[in-house]
Design brief:
Elements lengths: L1 H10 L3 H23 L7 H17 L1
Length: 62
């Protein structure tokens, strides 16, 4: 699917379509960046889950 999109992009001679593809790619990259930033750093969702699990384990072992 991606290969076909790249082939279509390279074959496309209409400038407007090329701009539309560029905007689409930029939107996808921005969305992916925003999505993955939620899972990194100390305030990410995985850190929060890990902290809650550690708290529960400490309660059970104390």
């Amino acid at each position: 699917m991606i290969r076909q999109l790249i082939r279509d992009f390279l074959k496309e001679e209409d400038g407007l379509a090329a701009v539309e593809y560029a905007v689409l790619v930029a939107a996808i990259v921005a969305g992916a960046t925003a999505f993955t930033s939620q899972f990194s750093g100390n305030d990410g969702i995985f850190a929060s889950i890990a902290s809650q699990i550690k708290t529960q384990i400490n309660k059970l072992t104390s």
